[in-house]
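Fold this complex.
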Amino acid sequence: DIVMTQSPESLAVSLGERATINCRSSQNLLYNSNNKIYLAWYQQKPGQPPRVLIYWASTRESGVPDRFSGGGSGTDFTLTISSLQAEDVAVYYCQQYYTTPPTFGQGTKVEIK
Amino acid sequence: EVQLVESGGGLVQPGGSLRLSCAASGFTFDAYAMHWVRQVRGKGLEWVSGISWNSEATGYAASVKGRFTVSRDNAKKSLYLQMNTLRSEDTAMYHCVKSSGVWLSHDHMDVWGKGTTVTVSS
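Structure:
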C-alpha cells in the first residue's frame, strides 16, 4: 500500500496569515500516460464529514475559495491557505487515488493562533 | 442536491453482524463507483471497501477482507455493506462516499455522507 505522511500534525496560524501543509507519498503519484497526479486534499470541520478541496494535486473543486491551492509533484505535495479565515479551522487530509487501496495521510489540524 | 444518507449502524456484540445501507439521490447513481470509508472517533480516515459502477469490481481493506461484503442496487440507488464477525476495532463512523469516476481507483472521492455509527462491544 502507498503510505501518505503529513506534516505538521497541527498548525496554529494567525488570521490572515499563510498556512502550509505538507504531504509525502511513499510512491510516485504521477501517471505518465496522462501526466496527471493522483492526489486529493480534503477538509473536515468538527462534526462534519470530509469535503474535497483539491484533486489532481492542484485542481480546486467547484465552490472552494481561491485562497486554497495545491501544489507539488511526484511524491511531495503541499496545501496552502493563502490567508487563513476563521472558517478554515479544520483537519486537512491528503489522499492518493493512484492505486487501490486509496490511502490517506494522518491529518493536520489547523487552528487560529 | 447530491445526497448520501447512511443507515443501519448501532451497537452489536463482538462476533455479530450488521448491514449498512446508503441511499443516494441527486445524481446518476449507476454512473459512479462508490466507497465506504470509516473513521474512529477523533482519529483519521480509513478506506474500507469500494465497488465499481456495474459491481464487476470490488475491493476491501486488508483489515476487513473476508468479513465484509460490499454490494449495490442501481435500480434502488443504494449501496450496502454487510459486516460479519465484527470486532471491537471495527467501532467507527462509517461514511458512504461517491467516487468521481466509474472504477475503484484513479478517481477522487467527491461527495461524502454524514455517516452511521457502528459500536462493537459486549
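Chain A has a mean pLDDT of 97.
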